[in-house]
Amino acid sequence: MTTGGSSVRFIHSSDWQLGMTRAFLSAEALSRFSQARIDAIATLGDLAKAHEAQFIIVAGDVFESNQLSRQTLMRAIDALESLSVPIFLLPGNHDPLDAASIFSTDEFMRVSEHIIVLRDMESVAVPGVPDVEVVGAPWRTKHPSSDLCRDLADSLAPASNIIRIAVAHGQTDTLSPDPSRPEVIDLANAEKAIRDHKFHYLGLGDRHSVTEVGSTARVHYSGAPVATAFDEDDPNKALLVELEPDGQCRVEPLEVGAWLFIAEQRAMNGPKDLAAFEKWLNEIPNKECTVIKVGFQGSVNLATAAMLDEIMDSKAELFASLRQRERTTDLAIVPDELDQDSVSLSGYARDTWNELHEMAQQDNLVAQDALRLFYRLGAQGGAG
Ligand SMILES: [Mn+2]
């Protein structure tokens, strides 16, 4: 494959999911999260400039759904319009090219020529870049009845004297084998299409982590440009792809986003563990863009439990989200002798405290919660 002796360089992105909401984010954090993913469009444009990439491909799920606010749509289009390189957008399972498609709105039909929606499986020449074309396998429904990547390969003749970049969306059978889902991509078949010179690179979307699949070194998931969930291994990236005239393919991950999702599990058995947890929280950079769910396991006295509550409450103000993970928390509050002596109560309050204290020591969870609240509301005489 040759293109007059010069290499082809482009950026591969996917899974922007613009308009995505997250239940664990406050309104304030959600608006920053949404803006971060719009800003990623401009960042991709800057990276294209910095690395002399000639165009950008987005391998599906540009939008979270086909039912978006007009604000999301207009802001996305505005960011796309400001790019100085051609950008190819593939409809994915979140934003299929059906009757209600966001790509069929009047606003989208009026966009500039450098914004190219891959609406069918026809090859599209890259504007301003000779001998290079992009071809896509767009989703037309949320439940395709076939492997669109196979359909695409079947429709193509071998490329001659031209470099062809294919763009598709979905899980490969090697990552997600599921015979009941006809849309799963047959990776061996896609790699055969590469060996048959039907295309020279397959840019995939759907997996939010940077992932190379197969053995040709030409099939990659770019991952999401901004992290969106806890189960992603390597998000916040885009791929810089370079196809050399001699046939080499080089792929380099580039940093795009700064959001971080952390699922943490910690042992909590006293003041030492508590101090270590607080230090860990303090040292996390970009707290306002960091979402944390944390589970605790262990057993602590009332004083430590109250301090843990206080740390979780005050630090939550700093993070995009900081929440205790109920499912993985198994924290026994066991009042000890220190707790017993730490309150200065008399009369009825003292009787109640003593009663709860005894019940709590016998693993009564309601009593433990009540005692913890009692303690935190200021019943303690000295410092905990
Ligand atoms: Mn998807």
Topology (elements, then pairings):
Elements lengths: L7 E6 L13 H24 L4 E4 L11 H12 L5 E3 L16 H4 L5 E3 L6 E2 L6 E5 L11 H8 L7 E7 L17 H9 L5 E5 L5 E2 L6 E3 L15 E7 L5 E7 L4 E8 L3 H12 L7 E11 L1 H15 L4 E4 L5 E4 L3 H5 L5 H15 L3 H15 L5
Parallel strand pairs: 1-2, 2-3, 3-4, 6-7, 7-8, 8-10, 13-14, 14-15, 14-16
Antiparallel strand pairs: 1-11, 5-6, 9-10, 11-12
Bound molecules: manganese (II) ion.
Summarize the structure.
This protein has 384 residues and is α/β, with parallel strands linked by helices. It folds into two domains: 8-255, 4-Layer Sandwich (Purple Acid Phosphatase, chain A, domain 2); 260-379, no CATH class.
Structural overview:
Helix 6 runs parallel beside helix 7. The chain is about 30% helix and about 20% strand. The strands form 3 sheets. Strands 4-3-2-1-11-12 form a 6-stranded mixed sheet, covered by helices on one side. Strands 5-6-7-8-10-9 form a 6-stranded mixed sheet, with helices on one face. It has helices at about 25-50, 70-80, 105-110, 150-155, 185-195, 270-280, 300-315, 335-340, 345-360, 365-380; strands at about 10-15, 55-60, 85-90, 115, 125, 130-135, 165-170, 200-205, 210, 220, 235-245, 250-255, 260-265, 290-300, 320-325, 330-335. The chain is of the alpha/beta class and about 375 residues long. It folds into 2 domains: about 10-255, Purple Acid Phosphatase, chain A, domain 2; about 260-380, no CATH class. The structure holds manganese (II) ion. Manganese (II) ion binds near residues 60, 61, 93, 94 and 169. Manganese (II) ion binds next to loops.
